[in-house]
Model the fold of this input.
Amino acid sequence: MVEIPILEVKNVSKRFVLQGQSIDALRDANLTVRKGEFICLIGASGCGKSTLLRIVAGFEQPTSGEALMWGKPVLGPAPDRGMVFQDYGLFPWLTVRQNIGFGPASRGRPKAEVRETVDRFVEMVGLTRFADVWPHQLSGGMKQRVAIARVLANDAEMVLMDEPFGALDAMTRERLQDELLEIWQRTGLTVLFVTHSIEEAIFLSNRVVVMEPGPGRIASTHEVELPRPRDVASPEFNAVRRVLSARLHSHHAPKAA
Amino acid sequence: MSQAVAEPVPAARRVPPFRRLLDSAGTVGLALIVPLLLLLFWHLAVAGGMTQLIPSPYDVAEYMVDFAWGGIWDDAFSGTLLIHLVASATRVYGGFALAALCAVPLGILIGRVPLIRDLLDPFLQLMRPIPVTAWLPLSMILFGLGPRSAFFLVFLGAFYPILLNTIFGVRSVETRLFEAASMLGCRGNAQFFKVVLPASLPSIFTGLRLGLGLAWFVIVVGEMTGVPQGLGAVIMDARTLSRTELVICGMIVIGIAGFISDRIVLALMNRLLRWSPQHHG
Done:
């Protein structure tokens, strides 16, 4: 292999022990992500999509197998893989500006540089007017914008998103999807995005990874080659949706081996 | 991504000053109804001869003036309010400060270090149910009759609420915030000042507030130990001398002093915890 992928997940399994019972949250997952890709992980609950994301983030260690970032094993959380949580995970005692500057400031960047970085990303996510308010004063969509800006300001090469728009209303969700795509196209980020919405997955990604529960595993991978911007109402979009929908629902959980 | 259309919840509603004054006057008025009714009942009860042992509100008010400034009765207690208040306040704040100084770091350690938790937590939990009043005889033996004993009891009274709330605050920091900090590059001990401390500040403040309240609560017991000055001492002396109006004066002064010091902590708390939806305003 000539080109090293930004992320390689190799035979990753994760087993939890819950009340004396061992559960295969994830079995033998393999996934290769090239720089700049937008990949969605989709599947019913218990299919291991969040577990896979948390292993890539370094929050969990795999029971076997490994995740490689630029060919090096992931040993723990680090700024190159920024995580956006569904419940935002903002620091409530810091203002929007301070939240966005948290990463660069913790890593000892000079004050002037931090200020400049923060200004740039506050503007990128359209929160200039709200730069000095606390998170509890923001709407859900605005909080999620802060969370996105926070990982971008910290030079994340890869953004891991765990159902980031799941708690938002439909209108806000659509707007944030558009904004996320715009940022992705502009910055060349690599995105790994967990969702349970087929439409969201097709709308956003280059590649949809379908996962299944019992044991959690990757069932199939689908390239989405629709031109952008994508129209969720177009026949082509619906054709893809039909294929994925059939794929998601046709597989009943087989008995655990 | 150029403009945000959604508007945030405004930090403070714009209310005209006149309206705000009216509102706060209304709030104060509402709060005064019950005390005034009680005062009226007290007056009527005394005037109607229901009791001979309790002085009328007027007698108490008159004595309060004498207690504060003198010039009416000119007895041993006239014009001594400030001396007693300062004596008590010194013990209250001193004992409270010492309690805070011990309990906050100890609570953080117990909350964060399993070894220290296993070492100290069972012992402290065992000591906790013992009421401060039960410590009185022992404290007199240990610290002698006098201010040191009072100081110790106040310390003890304020210690537990501060300790327990600090432990609670430190232990209930959301896991999510640690995850967020570590993926942003803030790890290990740096998380203590950047995450643990700010996140547990609301609980620590709750503990401080309860602790200060209890310090005023305990001061009367603390000053039963034979100190010459202090509001508790005044109440105990007045009881011995059957000076009920003086007992009531002492009670009122403690109530007001405790109330004011609570308001100060509350104001400080609201100022420092403006970020918290439970505290701002």
